[in-house]
């Protein structure tokens, strides 16, 4: 017989030692596997059951949404009425009925007013009810509405900027998935920004939305020695096409004020100081087929933005047509000797833009562009190895921006040893470059339109003159779900005199990096 | 070595020996080792000539530029500004024989938040090192220093003495304050707070050129009016219109007495800063190009014929062709 004391000691020892982590892990793994197998089996059985009955004639006699107390009936009717069999000219099979209902449930989910998951129940009405037919089913969708009001305060630290914000969201205001977003933030660079926007789906369609918004902000622009104060509003229609493209068509009206000039601001910036109103139509198209927006390993992104300001009936103080395109592609690079995905990938990006001056309203002459309409290029989120707005024409220390630009980059990403390819860390080697040019002044006379075309073509020619301004380097990438963080070491290879290259380390945070 | 010039520093000399010295001593602990620095110095591998400036950038910087409130054509002709604060310095610089151009601008461009300011000429070779702007309150000193540099020796001394004697004159200070408070208050009231003048002068000259948008114009009008109001309320707790006009009338009377039959104030043979200050108001009030609807100030001024003569003399003699254009028009207007 064992000594009770001794055995007691043994228990305490064992308790003290804790559970063997290896054993524990193994246990959890087995349990998980068992659960998974069971779940799979259940799914398969359900699938088989539906499969066996997939051609069973079914009529949906009613669809009930449970617990949607704050949502208008008419709004939901528009989604589900067309599905109900009374509105169909032929009966469903069971599979079709389930598919139709889940399409409706998917719409509900996209409206962002219900918690996930939305549960679906199918019931057969009592056969004793004389008004039913044997094929009738009743559908129940049980939802939990998200809270109608959300309020958040916090602080952010971003690209050399710290800020504090207040964010309020009111959901489903009128029971039709309308939302009101209110934002206020105060920071070191964006001194203050207030923004409010109201958004509503049109005809209960989550893929077709209308938005109305307004903003008032004041932003420091140290790269060109001024502060820009904006007050304005916009109206937007957003829709999605079947191919997965997202479109946005909107009108913007903004009162811009260039003010608060630094004491050493250049004459060019002083000349552009003051008020101007931009009244413009804008269209954006995005097709994002990347596997991850922050750290893509395969797929592509295409984006185009078109803006027409001040032309004809648009009025305002500035008139131009502006076009910008962006393309990004990523391909996995196989490494010989490594099975499956190596985690090494190559991403390339290209951006280009053009600002074409137009005659304002009914005037016959077009006016040259202003600093707040021109493009800026350079910095850790586009052409790395340059300071923020480090490329393009400069007057003294001020980046004046340009009317035409093109930039490209190639990044080769490797997983870090010891960390692995599944973690969002990568080591990168990159080379990128670009040109940012202002439209040339032409001395030749002639019709106004002809003059602009001439200066455009000579500026285009300049774009290909010599090597683009370039930098190359290497660094670390961390892809947070919200933004991408990079710490790079780089050296400028080619510069224009006056352009602000950065030798050494550079830190960047961006949502959309070149 | 890395060019670490930050954008906010006032001056950015290109790497010069003293600067490097400073960096070395202040950053002793993180100094990059010599071989690495030599490697860094090799980059960029290739440097092309500078990018061209955008079309709107001022191209000609070899002449001094006075940034004032004026119309675009007025700026080309060098016509008198319609803003007394700007016209004062414009006239003074003309009196001093300084060669300059006027540029049409607005208060946002100014380092002090109010026009005028002077942007001294910069030589074309040093495009990167534009001269710092001279705000209006330092224009006098800038001119004095410029004169001192130009003719070193006795002539500069006498000139400086004359300037000194003028500003040390007690009477000068007293009369200057008449202009800066009494006349200015009446001018502010009459221009900004009398609706007919606001509509006929402020709207077309100050507001409409900055934007074509009606809402923005309304907002700017409101800002201007409330700024004028707060300015007036700084000096008295209420705005007593009659008192403001009465004070201005008395001020003009004293100025008229001070001028007497002389050509210029204080019996000088050439106009000085005080003449420029008086001319700035009298010209804006008498200029027939400005459509004063509420003419109380102008009517008051026209009673003092010597002040009117003084304005005409300066406009014709010093603004030359630019003034004559006004005169021919004013005669038409008088018919």
TrEMBL record, chain A:
Pfam families reported in the protein's UniProt record: Omp85
Assigned keywords, A-Z: Membrane, Transmembrane, Transmembrane beta strand
Topology of the protein relative to the lipid bilayer: Multi-pass membrane protein
Keyword Transport: no
Single GO BP term: protein insertion into mitochondrial outer membrane
Top-level taxon of the source organism: Eukaryota
InterPro entries xrefs: Bac_surfAg_D15, D15-like
GO cellular component: mitochondrial outer membrane
Record domain Bacterial surface antigen (D15): where: 172-512
Main localization category: mitochondrion
Location within or outside the cell: Mitochondrion outer membrane
Gene3D superfamilies: membrane protein fhac: a member of the omp85/tpsb transporter family (2.40.160.50)
PANTHER family documented for this protein: SORTING AND ASSEMBLY MACHINERY COMPONENT 50 HOMOLOG, SORTING AND ASSEMBLY MACHINERY SAMM50 PROTEIN FAMILY MEMBER
Family affiliation: Belongs to the SAM50/omp85 family.
Protein's UniProt name: Bacterial surface antigen (D15) domain-containing protein
Automatic annotation (TrEMBL), chain B:
InterPro entries: Metaxin_GST (IPR033468), Mito_Protein_Transport_Metaxin (IPR050931), SAM35 (IPR021211), Thioredoxin-like_fold (IPR012336)
Domain Thioredoxin-like fold: 84-195
Any single biological process term in GO: mitochondrion organization
A Pfam family recorded for this sequence: GST_C_6
Region Disordered, residue ranges: 1-26
Domain of life according to the entry: Eukaryota
GO cellular component: a single term: SAM complex
Domain Metaxin glutathione S-transferase, residue spans: 249-314
Protein name: Mitochondrial outer membrane protein
Organism name: Alectoria fallacina
